[in-house]
Design goal:
4 helices; four-stranded antiparallel sheet; alpha+beta; 4 strands; Ubiquitin Conjugating Enzyme
C-alpha cells in the first residue's frame, strides 16, 4: 500500500490530478480539506468533517485515496484512516461505496469521490455493509447504531488542537 504509482500513470493524468488537487486546496468543498503530496499525487489525503445532525458531527475523519496505474479507467481505492463505526467501512478502513466500485465513471474527479464519501456519512447504505455489525444495528436498532457511532467519533475523530 505504500508503493507509489506515479511512475505508472500517464503524464496527462498526473497533470489533471495535480490541477484538481490544487484547485481543491484553493476552493475546498464545504467540510473537506485536501492535503497535496507533491511527490506522489496517487496518494491523496483529505479530512472530512462529520456532517451536522449525524452521529459523526464534530468529528474530523482522515481519508486516503490511492490511484492505481489505470486511473481514471479504474476507480481509486478509498480508506478511512480515522477509526469509524459505519456499515460501509471495513475494519481496515476500506470504503465500500458504489461510486468506487460498479458505478465508477472515468470522468469522476477527486472532488466527486470526496463528496460521495461525505454523503456516505449522511446516508449510510446498510445493504452493502462491510461492517456487518454496524449494518445490522442501523437496520434493527438505529438508536444503538447512533450511540455507537457517536462514541467512536468522540474517541477517535476529535480534531487535534495542533491542526
Amino acid at each position: 500500500m505504500s508503493t507509489s504509482n506515479v511512475e505508472n500513470l500517464n503524464p496527462n493524468v498526473i497533470r489533471l490530478v495535480t490541477k484538481e488537487l490544487l484547485d481543491l486546496q484553493k476552493n475546498p468543498p464545504e467540510g473537506i480539506r485536501v492535503t497535496l503530496n507533491e511527490s506522489d499525487v496517487t496518494d491523496i489525503h483529505a479530512v472530512i468533517e462529520g456532517p451536522e445532525e449525524t452521529p459523526y458531527e464534530g468529528g474530523s475523519f482522515e481519508v486516503k485515496l490511492i490511484l492505481n496505474r489505470n486511473f481514471p479507467q479504474e476507480p481509486p481505492k478509498g480508506f478511512f484512516l480515522t477509526k469509524i463505526f459505519h456499515p460501509n467501512v471495513a475494519q481496515n478502513g476500506e470504503i465500500c461505496v458504489n461510486t468506487l466500485k460498479k458505478d465508477w465513471q472515468p470522468n469522476y474527479g477527486i472532488k466527486h469521490i470526496l463528496l460521495t464519501i461525505k454523503c456516505l456519512l449522511i446516508v449510510p447504505n446498510p445493504e452493502s455493509a462491510l461492517n456487518e455489525e454496524a449494518g445490522k444495528l442501523i437496520l434493527e436498532q438505529y438508536e444503538n447504531y447512533c450511540s455507537r457511532a457517536k462514541l467512536f467519533t468522540e474517541i477517535h475523530a476529535r480534531p487535534s488542537l495542533s491542526k
